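Section handout 9: paired folding examples.
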Amino acid sequence: MRHQDEFAAAGTVSVWIGNFQTDAQFDDYMNLSQEFETDFGFKINDRGIREAVVESTPKPVGELVEGFSNWKSFGPAVAEAAKQAGVDRATTMIVFYTVRFDPTRVKINPNARLQFIGAFPFS
């Protein structure tokens, strides 16, 4: 298993989206069960900067990204990448700051509860 630090990249955010129903379900997936780490093949750096949101109902991805730190610099690209991936709406988004996740360097669970949308520059 790789480590998040192997994907360190200043000025880049990596974004995943999905459809968790509650904060507790998302917390279990990300932190308690470590299922995210298994699904995406890397150990999370607990000191790394990340932000997440879980909404009660699905929102357009362009609205879901609003409010993240520096979202205006990467939000439009996230919405477009999600659209290209066939995702218009979601309840959940997590953003890892200063991370350029590279899915070609790990084995991803095709049934993961989150979908990697991409890595984007931010300012």
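Moving on to protein 2 of 2.
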Amino acid sequence: MDSRNDRDKIHLDNILAKISVEEYIQKILQHNPYPYQWEIIRAILDSVIGHKGLTFSILLARQMGKNEISALVEACLLAFRSEGTIVKAAPTYKPQIVNSRLRLDSMLNKSFVTQKRVWHAEGYIIGVAHHNKAASSKTGPRVMFLSASPDSNIVGATASLLLEVDEAQDVSVEKFNRDLMPMASTQNATTVLYGTAWSEDTLLEQVKAVNQELEAQDGIRRHFEYNWHTLAALNGKYKTFVEREIRRLGAEHLTIRTQYDLKTINGVGLLLSETQRHMLRGTHEWLNGPLEDDDGYYIAGLDVGGEERQKQGEGQICYKHDSTVLTIARVVTDDMSLQGLEIVHQVQWTGKPYLEQYAACLALCELWKIQRLAVDKTGLGEGLASLLSVKLGEDVVVPFHFTRQSKSKLAYDFLSSINSGHLKMYKEDGAPDDISIEAWKQLKLARYRIPGENLLDMYVAPDEGHDDYLISIALCREALKEWTEPYFETIIIRPRIPYEDRSWF
């Protein structure tokens, strides 16, 4: 070793011997964590350094710095430890793991303590060589970044210092128990699960429940949970951002409830609360056609019904017809320039041949001068959507193909428009009884379920009725997303004050 390298080694040894972790983070890494972040950082490092092997559950609202916490812990361990392995896992390699790797790499290269000794291997490992070794030696402590997706092959890695799981609410319990947890077992490594709320059966919620039981027994804190109010009290810009999102989406939107309020959603229940159904009731009239000299704009949603075959007795088959429902809505704009919808007309066709449905739908679209028509093109609806697209034009017809992901997005948007007061149904007085009764029946019976991680399904149980009105209304919201309003004066409505109801489920 030449004299310069020897001096550098002595210099670094002296620094790390005299400086605390807090000073290293603030003075060398130049980060100033919030008080709640310091609590978490100290607890994790204390468990790692003390070989306590604790398991932590960390629930933080979005943009509250959980990735910063993780990178700071990793950077400190790589600087202060002479050996050992950290394993960092996330549901996806891109972008989650890639972003975590880039964040740590940037932090290490900004620190004069580690910048000359950082090394990389295999595209997923970052290490810091020991003081008396060159970076090319690829010795010393390291972090292995792995995907926790269900089909990833990650068996065999060992976490001797720390096992971290990011967005743990999206990692399957089976994957964690089978592939990840054993990595920490042989060395009794500390384990940390970071994330936000979702349903009660997620990995993160299960670990949280266990940690809270252990805390009650021995008083050692293992669970850390801070919703958006914690950072809002410290950062005015963050407070403004979240409050704006709540106004935009509504306080009961799933994104607000789970990712900012950290409230879980439970089981299978009603999609709309009594308050939400109340908010959906409008004060405008049912219309049989556009008013004279009406310069408003109308869009529509079309849920296409099919035939359901049912067996009866001795091999006999009968056909139970779902209805095709067309919902027409007027576009309105509030004084914040946010667009909303007023449902003004609905019609259903049950058992009618598709060519007759096409003719009837086309006539209504021409009568109302429909600007956008979102059409269910799944299955038998594809033909009807194609015919309407040819006649009305591809700039008017918006084909909608139902998948788990697309229906989930449709459900989220539907709820958002209700919670923000930007979707209203016509007054029942003046509307045809058979239509208004069936529409409100479906809205009342509509349920939700969680078919997968971060997915939402809405439906009416088959033994209780149909969901054609529900889907048709939701498709109106989809049509609005695909429509750009022409540049001239629009109808102005005053925003309605939402009810302060926080019992979404």
